């Protein structure tokens, strides 16, 4: 269905903000910063599946960040794509592991990851969903500095001419 991506992303992030606000003694705190384009970006996606992708990126950003970390979420458009990103100030991913983190069950540093819980399926599923939509998902990360995950989706900017039939 056609979905307003700004609205969906805001909705997902509102939920993560609420978790922190409602928890008296959170195990871990975090701050979410939103840097969104003001223009509404409508994209053809499956809301439930795409929400699952955003949830996983956010859960990872929190899970692999120190207490009090800032997570910066961006949404912008380029000529033919929308680009959504989630940037954390966490552990980062060693360069050698980067090509494999989208593989099923792959987790960096088994001991470290086991302590955090999870199965190693989140990013594999995310990649499937994004590729099904004709998009791409990738990461830019530096060990000890943090990670930024990007998703690009094909996007046809709204044109005023689209309102008019050929005959008019
Ligand atoms: P699941 O999502 O199934 O609960 P998971 O989070 O371990 O488990 P993925 O989301 O697929 O699995 O991530 C794969 C691995 O990539 C993680 O185990 C972790 O080692 C690494 N990783 C993912 N996101 C980040 C991040 N933001 N910072 C550092 N490492 C990350
Ligand atoms: Mg995950």
UniProtKB/TrEMBL annotation:
Keywords: Kinase, Membrane, Phosphoprotein, Transferase, Transmembrane, Transmembrane helix, Two-component regulatory system. It comes from Levilactobacillus spicheri. One of its GO terms (cellular component) is plasma membrane. The lineage of its organism: Bacteria, Bacillati, Bacillota, Bacilli, Lactobacillales. This is histidine kinase. GO terms for molecular function: phosphoprotein phosphatase activity; phosphorelay sensor kinase activity. The keyword Repeat does not apply. Residues 1-157 form the Histidine kinase domain. GO terms for biological process: cellular response to phosphate starvation; regulation of DNA-templated transcription. It is found in: Membrane.
């Amino acid at each position: 269905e056609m979905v307003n991506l700004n609205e969906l992303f805001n909705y997902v992030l509102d939920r993560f903000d609420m978790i922190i606000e409602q928890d008296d003694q959170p195990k871990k705190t975090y701050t979410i910063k939103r840097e969104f384009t003001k223009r509404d970006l409508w994209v053809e996606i499956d809301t439930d599946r795409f929400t699952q992708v955003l949830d996983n990126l956010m859960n990872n950003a929190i899970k692999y960040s120190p207490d009090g970390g800032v997570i910066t979420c961006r949404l912008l458009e380029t000529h033919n794509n929308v680009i959504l990103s989630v940037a954390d100030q966490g552990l980062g991913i060693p360069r050698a592991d980067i090509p494999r983190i989208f593989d099923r069950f792959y987790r960096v540093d088994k001991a470290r990851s086991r302590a955090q819980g999870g199965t190693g399926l989140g990013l594999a599923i995310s990649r499937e969903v994004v590729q099904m939509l004709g998009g791409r998902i990738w990461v830019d990360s530096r060990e000890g500095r943090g990670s930024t995950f990007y998703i690009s989706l094909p996007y046809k900017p709204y044109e005023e001419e689209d309102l008019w039939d050929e005959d008019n």
